Amino acid sequence: MTVAAIGYLHIESSDIDAWMKFATAVLGLMEATRDDSAGARFLRMDNHPFRFMVSSGEQDRLLAVGLECRTAADWQRCCDALTAAGHECVPGDSAEAQRRCVTEFVTASDPSGNVIELYYGRQLDYRPFNSPAGVRGFVTADAAGADLGFGHAVLPAPQSETTIRFYTDLLGLAICDDLRLATPPSRVVFMHADNPRQHSLALYDQPHPSGAVHVMVEVQTLDEVGLAMDRAKAAGHPIIASLGRHVNDNMCSFYVLAPGGIAFEYGYDGLLVDWDNYTPTVSTEGDLWGHEYQFPGVND
Ligand SMILES: [Fe+2]
Known about the structure:
The protein has 300 residues and is α+β, with helices and mostly antiparallel strands. It is 18% helix and 34% strand. The protein has a single domain, classed as 2,3-Dihydroxybiphenyl 1,2-Dioxygenase, domain 1. The chain contains 5 helices and 18 strands. Strand 7 and strand 8 (115-120) form a beta hairpin. Helix 1 (16-27) runs antiparallel to helix 5 (222-234).
């Protein structure tokens, strides 16, 4: 397996101040100021230099998913596999690599048009994480210290089969759950990277205007989830799923819309898996309980 973790997201925001206020005051992420920001804003949740890079723009959308390889050799294998399969890998220049605090990266697009940045060699930031909202810490490592990535992202993938094969055959992610929903008829394929988090990336077989169906961050306790829900409600951000628990990764969470419309899942108690003894599941429902969905304009 060649992709170790989902390392970061690059997000475009039409109102970057509102987005940063949401990310810091509601989610509890910490802004990291940088001399070489070139207009972007950066958010930390652990000892990575950032987990979210936010650029000001005309649209509100996910620009790129940063996928981390453990070594230069793993990274080269991924690049070679992508190139051999006819996918263009565009090398990032040294200034852009430095801005992402990585040694090297390439940009590529999956068959559904989602942009990935494949990288290795991240420079970590050992200054203490200090949440402006008082969050004690985000779950980005297991008890043994293995990097679990920032959480997970669900991407739109109307070109379902070819996009699944892009991540599994070329980048080495593996399917851990295949969710078939009856209403509306749709499919979500969940994939794990080379770490114990039950899923790092999932592909929804329908289009989505923001480029991200949702993004998940994980905290340590139910109380931290509840406190975040209170902060989200107090700040007037739409709660689009009530508290609930997912079937496949056991995540107990709620969903809130960030300014601009990307949904954030905020949860705790996510499943960590020993992949040597795991049988991939096929599910027909997403939730054990709760998660009453309330999409703006749909159920109003
Ligand atoms: Fe999720």
